[in-house]
Amino acid sequence: MGHAFPLDYSRARAEFLAAAEEAGARLRNFTLPRHRGPDGAELAVDTAYLGPPDPAKLLMTVSGTHGIEGFCGSACQTTVLLREGVAKAAAGATTGVLLVHALNPYGFAYLRRVNEDNVDLNRNFVDHQAPPHNDAYDAVHRTLVPADAAGFAPGELVANLTALRDRLGPQRLQEAVTRGQYRHSDGLFYGGDTPAWSRRVFETVVAEQVAGAAHVGYIDLHTGLGERGVGEPIFRGGRDADAHQRARRWYGEALTASEQGTSSSTPIVGNTATAVADGLGDGGRLTAITLEFGTRPGPEVLLALCADAWLHRSHPPTEAVRHDLKQLIRDAFCPADDARWREQVLQRAREVFDQAVVGLAEAK
């Protein structure tokens, strides 16, 4: 099944568009201005829709919110939803299926988790006039992003990260680093100071293709947290009182929740499901999850993020994307040489997509 995973963004996009056309989907394209890929190709968010013009129920999946994680998400959308016919079978007289491909196309193309402005898109959906500052990040920032680093020194960085983990504990360190922060534009998990281009595109998609639905089943596809090869459904929202229990009915005991401490993810702010909930308002119901596929142990993933941050501070993007250090972040978010991992991902995606289809069909 390894062939289902694209080698680069351009091929991922071409394969997605071809599969969507073959499935008879209606396509929309949003081209990122002022940027091209490393190969000179256009960068874009693409959507594919199957179903009636005004669906009462909508299954919505998103890939590439975190750029490089799009290798996995794109494979799940193109192979399982489109080529294997899951999306076409799910669409009906009152049900639609919407696929948003490569929400962060720059990060996908340049093998980054962040966008063209070093913004973590899944922390960008906040009120930037009053951002939810993460004071705990201030204390760890210079360990993650050394101010005077002339070169990348992995041994020193690992020693410093280990000391930080020993002092704070793994849980507190993860919370400090990953919650989202809005003061350090060169740092990790930076939520930005304005709505990013991808956020504006996503809000347009929600307003024009999602907002009229009575019930949305939402799946945002991610990698990098949890047990290797396991696809963890993490509850991400629905503002009605039954939302969490409804998600448990759909996804069973495997469902976790960051706010309850049962997930590999600590609580985060400003994620994409926020925009869907806002778009639906009080008139619609949302059952939202992140489907998170584990790759490497947490310390290795953090080291890869630190290495990538240094790489892009020190090199032009077209040089950085071809640097040997890129292998660290590639392995951390889409292992290139592990066919078993890829088989596990696609099989788990099939299971979760099927659960969402059934759950949405049975929803009142």
Itemize the secondary structure elements and their pairings.
Elements: H1 9-22, E1 26-36, E2 42-50, E3 57-62, H2 70-83, H3 86-90, E4 95-101, H4 105-109, H5 135-138, H6 141-144, H7 154-168, H8 170-178, H9 197-210, E5 215-228, E6 231-237, H10 243-251, H11 272-280, E7 285-294, H12 298-314, H13 317-320, H14 326-333, H15 339-362
Helix pairs in contact: 1-2, 2-15, 7-8, 9-11, 10-15, 12-14
Structure overview:
There is one protein chain. With 364 residues, the protein is an alpha/beta fold. It has helices at residues 9-22, 70-83, 86-90, 105-109, 135-138, 141-144, 154-168, 170-178, 197-210, 243-251, 272-280, 298-314, 317-320, 326-333, 339-362, and strands spanning 26-36, 42-50, 57-62, 95-101, 215-228, 231-237, 285-294. The chain has one domain (2-124, 191-298, 332-362): 3-Layer(aba) Sandwich (Aminopeptidase). Helix 2 packs across helix 15, helix 7 packs across helix 8 and helix 10 packs across helix 15. The longest helix is centred in the C-terminal third of the chain and has 24 residues, at 339-362.
